[in-house]
Amino acid sequence: MDESAFRDWSLKAAQWGADYRASLRDRPVRSQVAPGDIARQIAASPPDRGEDMETIFADFEKIVMPGMTHWQHPRFFAYFPANAAPVSVVAEYLVSAMAAQCMLWQTSPAATELETKVLDWLRQAIGLSDSFAGVIQDSASSATLSAVLVMRERALAWKGNAAGLAANRQLRVYASNQVHTSIDRAVWVSGIGEDNLVRVPISGAMRGMDVDALQKAIVADREAGFLPAGIIACAGGTSTGACDDIAAIAEVGNKYNLYLHVDAAWAGAAMICEEFRYIWNGIELADSIVFNPHKWLGAQFDCSAHFIRSPEDLVRTLAVQPEYLKTHGRDGIINYSEWTVPLGRRFRSLKIWFLLRHHGLDGLKTMIRNHVRWAQKLARRLAAEADFELVTEPILSLFSFRHLGGEMADSHNIALVNAINDDGRIYLTQTRVDGRIAIRFQAGQFDMTEADADTAYDVIVEMARRLSA
Ligand SMILES: *Cc1c(COP(=O)(O)O)cnc(C)c1O
Fold first, then answer.
1. Nearest Cα to 415, choosing from 401, 430, 433?
2. Structural domains of the chain ordered from first start
């Protein structure tokens, strides 16, 4: 592609992006295609001769677009949001054009220094003290893996990377049954093993770890010859928003010298609002915290903020310095690739900088407060209907409910979710609460309005009654 074609097609792509965003309300939220519909239209082998851009672009619109689920749709209430505020999209256009590898300070000093600054902005925004330093990870899964690796190395007196695990006592990691599957994968990949992930039972309305049970499990493991390494707490679990009592957990962790990682991937964004910080009381006592600006806050995917009390421990766990990666003659620089598992790094701080400057914390706080208010209003409206029940009360902007559809409640509610998503006006997903199916609702899309929450109510009630009729 020559210079002039690159200019034309870049402009066309930007134009297309703006038109696309403007058209979202008229599209079904979840893609309506069947499995195989898209694959069937793609050639079996790559072309030998280059094709012109007109054809490629036309196929993109014809073949690809029907197979897209619209995560930026204002009535996306499924999973968690993956907001890409327009201003962060603009930043990503620039980053994409420069395509720099920001693994070392010298491979783009601006990327490193801006990362230090904007992570410090985020730290202040969510009310953490300056005893934490931040780094951008590609995902919460990677941040959690890094934290589990630090747990492992710390418990093994920094010998695990060299000696492996076989020669050592079995490590133990503790978490409730509400934590995200990324915790399971971190213990698999770190070599600790799922059998050594101790699932502490939960109690109370916030569905947090039973702290007495945690303490008993640690004591029993020590007596049995295991080596407890760390605890993973959640602030806003994926299924229903479960929150552990971080202050109480930290006290137990401290007593047994355990590393404490907190997964606040979704809820962390809401911590910019002082009144919601009660959900992670005691957070100052954590060693490691992850939250995803790429979820609720509006920084285009991917962008995970990882705060650690001791970056030295992280670097000691992850840094390797072959000669070809050394930066000679520069003191006091940070090479962020020593803080993460992957070496290569995208320039992710630019979109945070654009986002925070353009919206200001006040703008983002108003958005989050509105989402919480609208979700709570919808929860109350559904609870007031005789044929609906709330399964879990709202935690921030997430709650779960069920339609009382007679005997086969689970299959009825699955059928309801499917009917709603086939309808296309809104998008919801389900979960299991105490073994039974419940429907999740979360409000969090950047352009959502109160009217969209009202539409959700109309669609849910209409589809449920149609299904039962
Ligand atoms: C989304 C989510 C994750 C996983 O985040 P990735 O960035 O996709 O790895 C982990 N934990 C919680 C609580 C989440 O909501």
1. 430
2. 101-346 (3.40.640.10)
